[in-house]
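Bit of a strange request maybe. I'm writing a small parser for structure token strings and I need a real example to test against, not something I typed by hand. Could someone generate the tokens for this chain?
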Amino acid sequence: MNSISIKKWMAFAGLTWLTYVIFHALSLLNFHFGKGGFNGFYAEFDQTPIYYLMLAVLAFSFALHVVIAVSRQLKNNAAMGDKYHHTYPKAIPRFVAWGGASTLFGFIVFHFWQMQLLDKTDLYQQMFNIFTQPVMLLIYVFGVITLSAHLHHALTSVLQTLGITSRRYDLLVIILISILMLSFASVPVSVIYA
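Reply from user aminoacidic:
Good idea to test on real output. This should exercise your parser:
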């Protein structure tokens, strides 16, 4: 498989996750409609076959995305040697870029397992319990910021890979990411000021 095909598979896996992130942000907005609506939505959705299919697709695309990203980076390092060790991307040091990706990976795994361990009979109250803990609040704020930074880099790269000039659509990318970030942030903010 050539480099362009691999990049397209990586982009496809990333876009699968972007679709889920948008769905997740929209579903979390149910929190603002109160306990009944929020608990009802998740109680019904978590019991459907679509939920389990979604988890399988997300797990596969997540693994595909990570494996391709790491293997491409290692291959580029080996092919270019010292020439490839310039700042990445746009004056961001390599360890910061990869540190951010690693942090996002850790946050996704942490968030998934934490959600599996929660008592789903009153998820609304569980969210209150999580976001009233300062450490958990900081973890989620940091996770959302890391996700937003990754999405900005990823979406501009995907657009470029698909042949769409990323500069032309950069404002649209920033608007989309800002809306997602504000949607995710609205839940802990509403808990803090409840």
